[in-house]
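Researcher: Here's the sequence for the chain we discussed earlier.
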Amino acid sequence: MAQEVRGVIAPGKDEPVRLETIVVPDPGPGEAVVQVQACGVCHTDLHYKQGGISDDFPFLLGHEAAGIVESVGAGVTDVAPGDFVILNWRAVCGRCRACLRGRPWYCFDTHNAEQKMTLASTGQELSPALGIGAFAEKTLVAAGQCTKVDPSVSAQVAGLLGCGVMAGIGAAINTGQVGRGDTVAVIGCGGVGDAAVAGANLAGAAKIIAVDIDDRKLETARSMGATHTVNSRETDPVEAIRELTGGFGADVVIEAVGRPETYKQAFYARDLAGTVVLVGVPTPEMKLELPLLDVFGRGGALKSSWYGDCLPSRDFPMLIDLHLQGRLDLGAFVTETIELTDVEKAFERMHHGDVLRSVVVL
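Model: Thanks. This is the structure I predict for it:
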């Protein structure tokens, strides 16, 4: 039977979020209902609220979540009621050309739940953020969006792998393929950038250079594994990175801002035949201009990282195990825990750069 629960919606462009009663239907074939235990407040949710992703309002916000599977629909075999899961927004299909070629992290046909959650007051259909909608006591997702992990981990930290932390770690390990002894620079030290620093540290990078305009963020990056920091408001970051790498530039430069000017810095701060990884998300109107001769003459690779090129079934359990072993401090990303009623204030703190991650605990 359908259930009524509390959830946070964005009713219209740039309007304050509201706590509403929403209707969660019983799971249909291939679907699951998850009791949400915790959900991080991600910048992507703010983009939805601002109308920067689509105008399909109202949105049910929240997507960096972990919780307990409550019920599943027909044909679901990978998860069962009682499983502790992290929700992911790229449920791979297993049938598209990328999946069939053994590259499921590039799946071209990822899917969400077929049924829609609705507003209890009007029956209006809700658009769940990234197909998840987890600023709610319970949510309906495709069963493939549920990834089982060790239940001994705290939901507050596990859910962060559902988006930002996975995006940053994966940008370093999966997309950038950082290796032992490499030099790495990370431009932009918010949640995703700091996760890229942590990922480079996990991979055994010899030198990790964090770049930002905020000294507070640079100090946090040091705690995540950065060996050097550069305040690009005061120092030319390209010159600083070259000076710190013997004049050559970094083997891998990860751009975690998503702006043309910082991308150019990343491009020119890498070594010959080095790699640039764009994991920061640009806005639709942004344009990039580079001399084509420089693109040709410097060689190497220019890559974009979607969700850290992760495969949730492979990467989430591995990273949770590393956390439980004390080798990856996911708790360091949590600045504060809040309630559903505090989401609007969390967006304000995010805008001012006062938090790394606010986490809603239910």
